[in-house]
Amino acid sequence: MSLQALLLTLRLAVLVSLILMAIGLPLGYWLASSRWRWKFVMEAVVALPIVLPPTVLGYYVLVAIGPMSPVGRWYYKLTGGSLAFTFRGLVVGSVLYSLPFAVQPIAAAFSAVDRNLLNASSTLGASPWRTFWQIVFPLGLPGVLTGFVLSFAHTLGEFGVVLMIGGNIPGATRTISIWIYDQVQSLNYAAANQMAAVLLIVCFVILTVLYGLRRTRKWGVWGWQ
Amino acid sequence: MRKILLLAFLATISGYLAAQQITVAAAADLNYALTDLAQRFERNTGNKVTLSFGASGNLYSQISNGAPFDLFFSADEEYPKKLVAAGIAEAPSLKTYATGHLVLWVPNSSGLDPAKLQIQLLTQPSVKRIAIANPQHAPYGRAAVAAIEHYGLKDQVTSLLVYGENVSQAAQFVQSGNAQAGLIAMSLAMSPPMQSAGKFWELPPDAYPELKQAVVIVSSSKQKKTAQAFLDFVFSAEGAAVFKQFGLTPAAHP
Predict the structure, then answer these.
(1) Which residue of B has its CA nearest to A183?
(2) Does residue B106 sit in the same domain as residue B184?
(3) What is the DSSP letter of A191?
(4) Domain around B67
(5) Could you tell me the sign of the dihedral formed by the alpha carbons of A19, B177, B55, B230, in that order?
(6) Tell me, which fold does domain A3-52+84-217 have in CATH?
(7) Which domain CATH number covers B119?
(8) What is the pLDDT of residues A83-128, one digit of tens each?
(9) pTM recorded for the entire structure
(10) Measured distance CA(B200)–CA(A200) in Å, rounded
């Protein structure tokens, strides 16, 4: 068991799911309400990380944050450092990697909100901002929580992207999945077993709670409607 | 006419049937040297060689768990010996094929001159990340750690180390400029894409334990004859010349 890897992974997953809420709420709302004819292109872009191999994602992120790319140079000018092999770099990679798991349930829940309520709200003089927070958000809350939990769990199990951009640094980028991989490759099956069991139980509990809530309270909407 | 066509057809078919295919697990430092050797062997014999590269430790654990390889080229002698001891590889086939060398590599964009600074390059302020292979399962990673300790730089540079999954990934980290220096295999530094992208300094042999690399035939192989033929080629004068070209010292022949 490596407590360091466990805590690091939890910290990464919490941070990533919080950031994804900040991105997912406006993006999900836009996807649910926009009438733009090219919206489906945006939907495809959001769904890409589900089908792309993590190595493709990791490769693009590594090149993008490298010193040869404009993004990498801009970041270097700003901070004097590089994103590669850092915890921040992992956060960036993981946000991309888990994006659809946050955005899709949110968008689905928001688009299920009755339009008559929204129209009534605006006829009564509520601003779009107020309509969002007093009607759309509370009604879509189950979807928002589903998005939060799924992106959290998905980031916990991330491997390929971390392998490509992490550099396996203890305390910074050596996550649980990388740590388990190292133990298996070194034939330390006992150590790998323990940590794998911890991850299995954590993920199982998370998903059981999620699906349990969904069953009892009609919470959470998974996929497009 | 028909008979001739039929004969030609049969000749072609039998050519295919005679050609064998072997699957080779090889240490990541052999990425270029062994690819070159395999191509020459394929051209000479018509047999096909499929190569899988990885950290020696990873390949070792895969073969221990029954991975269907015919040959295993390790970057050390320990893993093949362990396979022989476990009865998974053929004892008589165990042989050292080359000695590897460790180099300090920097990209062209680095203003630092490895030939001049030598190991002290690692302590320059502009070096923020040093790429090495994972010492847990890559012999070149262990050699890099040994060299860092040999020069008494452990306290200074350990926090700068980033670990590639194998020595090729370590090379990729530094070749892409994401790390500013790397301790990698000379056989990768001598490859065309790395040669044009940077400069290196070869560490003196007393800085790390000798990287003797051994090969072994896997017992479960069904292509032992072809595997042996490939080994004979690797140990030939032509094979030795290829190793030399990629900065590996071929083993002395009896």
Answers:
(1) B136
(2) yes
(3) H
(4) 2-99+212-250
(5) positive
(6) MetI-like fold (1.10.3720)
(7) 3.40.190.10
(8) 888 999 999 999 999 999 999 999 999 999 988 998 899 899 889 8
(9) 0.81
(10) 45
Handedness of CA A31, A33, A34, A39 (dihedral sign): positive
DSSP state of B223: -
Give chain B's mean pLDDT: 92
Per-residue model confidence as pLDDT tens digits over B110-168: 889 999 999 999 999 999 999 999 998 899 999 999 999 999 999 999 999 999 999 99
CA distances (Å), origin A79, targets A76, A85, A154, A163, B66: 5, 15, 29, 24, 48
At A106 the pLDDT is 96
Residue A66: its chain B contacts at CB < 8 A? 176-178
Side chain identity at A12, as an amino acid letter?
A: L
Which of A66, A84, A168 faces B134 most closely, judged by CB atoms? A168
Question: Is A62's CB within 8 Å of B58's CB?
Answer: no
Total domain count for chain B? 2
How would you class A115 by CB atoms within 10 Å of its CB: exposed for 0-12, middle for 13-18, buried for 19 or more? Answer: exposed
Cβ of A186 within 8 Å of Cβ of B131? The answer is: no
Closest chain B residue to the Cα of A82, Cα to Cα: B178
Say what angle helices B56-64 and A176-185 make with each other, to 10 degrees. 70
Structure tokens at B246: 């990629």
User: ipTM exceeding 0.90?
Assistant: no
pLDDT at A222: 45
Cβ B189 vs Cβ B195: under 8 Å: yes
Cβ <8 Å between B178 and A84: yes
Please write the tens of the pLDDT for every residue from A207-222: 898 888 877 655 444 4
